[in-house]
Design brief:
With 388 residues, the chain is mainly β. It has one domain (20-256, 265-359, 371-387): YVTN repeat-like/Quinoprotein amine dehydrogenase (Methylamine Dehydrogenase, Chain H, 7 Propeller), CATH 2.130.10. It has strands at residues 20-21, 23-24, 36-42, 53-55, 60-65, 86-91, 97-102, 108-112, 117-121, 125-130, 135-141, 147-153, 158-163, 168-173, 179-184, 189-194, 199-204, 210-215, 220-226, 230-239, 244-252, 271-276, 282-287, 292-298, 303-308, 312-320, 323-331, 340-342, 347-352, 382-387. The strands form eight sheets. A four-stranded antiparallel beta sheet has the order 3-30-29-28, with no helix packed on it. A four-stranded antiparallel beta sheet has the order 4-5-6-7, with no helix packed on it. Strands 8-9-10-11 form a four-stranded antiparallel beta sheet, with no helix packed on it. The two termini are 28 Å apart.
């Protein structure tokens, strides 16, 4: 992801943009619609998080949490004890806590249900655990890679772990944790998704952005589908049946040089780039309501979802393989920027925490930029369940 969501900060993201992208983007959908927040549960606990995973088979929600340092008490606030990295586990139906796996947290979790094994990406190793006993099996060394995004392709029981600085994916056999090799992705990878027939797609965070198309058997990137001027892309979803990719992007044009004045608000609209997964042809671009850090596609409803850090969820309806519309922009919770789908109930899950008010003298935030570092309210970590 852009960075592991930390205890101390969330980026303030740009507000909804309505600029042009070659052609005029469609108007934003209203906030009212078929989706709503069904349940909000404050589960507490400190530490950052990033990629989360809903296991529709085991009925569990896995959330990696980062380690935090102890905070001394002040005259107005009590002390906060240190916390270690771990995976927190919740009942996917009730959101009741089910336990933790110590020394295994980090940037993301993926489960390979065919093998009974789960994996979490963290620095410097990948953790492998048993999904039945919730016990850590082993640590997998993947250096010099720095694991971030993670994905399990259940069609071949391989885990793909994406690394920003090395611009590659480490491939792990989900059955025994053996490292099978690495794939040069030719860019800064974020979210990945496979079609179940031997092709893996990985969205590139670069500006301008693209999708890397990977031959899984050969463990080789065969081509890139460019997004035109769109970049800063963090979310990727796939309609397998109709071969359509949905890439959630946050910017247009190259990254401004240091010291360059910030662009106008309408120069960097956030957009969902929708393209043909077979040939990379861009079908359309639709506005999303903020800076995305995750996307999923629900084949039951033919709907793509993008979570934004400004507390919105953009819902894109696929009316046909060539017709798409922003169906709704749902208010969620400020900072709720990662997402997972329970394919059994069709529920979406995201999470965030509450924050102290920003300082009164905080400088203004440039469009599409990050705001000042914000201090989280202890014990405020919250899970949201979303559906119709």
């Amino acid at each position: 992801m852009r960075r592991l969501c930390s205890l101390f900060s969330f980026a303030l993201v740009a507000l909804l943009a309505t600029a042009t992208l070659g052609t005029t983007l469609a108007a934003q959908a209203p906030s009212t619609g078929p989706y709503k927040v069904l349940k909000t549960v404050k589960v507490g606990g400190e530490g950052g998080w990033d990629y989360i995973y809903a296991d529709p088979v085991g009925r569990r929600l896995y959330i990696p949490r980062g380690a935090t340092r102890a905070v001394e008490a002040t005259d107005s606030k009590p002390a906060i004890p240190a916390s270690e990295s771990r995976i927190t586990i919740f009942n996917l139906d009730t959101l009741a806590p089910l336990g933790e796996i110590p020394d295994s947290g980090g940037n993301g979790v993926a489960v390979c249900p065919n093998t009974g094994h789960g994996f979490s990406s963290s620095h410097p190793d990948v953790s492998m655990f048993d999904t039945k006993t919730d016990k850590l099996i082993k640590k997998i060394v993947v250096a010099p890679a720095q694991p971030d995004g993670i994905y399990c392709d259940t069609s071949n029981d391989r885990v793909y772990v994406f690394s920003h600085p090395t611009k590659n994916a480490t491939v792990i056999d989900a059955k025994d944790g053996t490292v099978l090799g690495t794939i040069d992705l030719g860019g800064t990878p974020e979210q990945g998704v496979a079609d179940g027939h031997g092709t893996l797609y990985v969205v590139m965070q670069d500006r301008p952005g693209s999708v890397a198309v990977v031959d899984e058997a050969a463990m080789k990137t065969t081509t890139h589908y460019p997004f035109g001027e769109n970049g800063g892309c963090n979310g990727l979803a796939l309609d397998v049946k109709n071969h359509i990719l949905f890439a959630a992007c946050s910017a247009v044009g190259p990254r401004p040089a240091p010291g360059t004045p910030p662009p106008a608000a309408d120069a960097h609209p956030q957009a969902m780039v929708i393209l043909n997964a077979t040939n990379g042809n861009i079908l359309t671009k639709l506005p999303i309501a903020g800076g995305s850090d995750g996307a999923v596609f629900n084949p039951a409803y033919k709907t793509a979802f993008s979570t934004q850090g400004n507390g919105t969820l953009t819902i894109v309806k696929e009316n046909s393989p060539t017709s798409f519309v922003v169906e709704q922009n749902l208010d969620t919770m400020n900072g709720a920027r990662t997402i997972t789908l329970d394919t059994k109930t069709n529920h979406i899950f995201t999470m965030s925490q509450e924050f102290e008010p920003p300082p009164a003298n905080a400088p203004p935030v440039a469009p599409g930029g990050r705001g000042p570092r914000r201090v989280a309210v202890p014990g405020s970590f919250t899970i949201l369940m979303i559906g119709k």
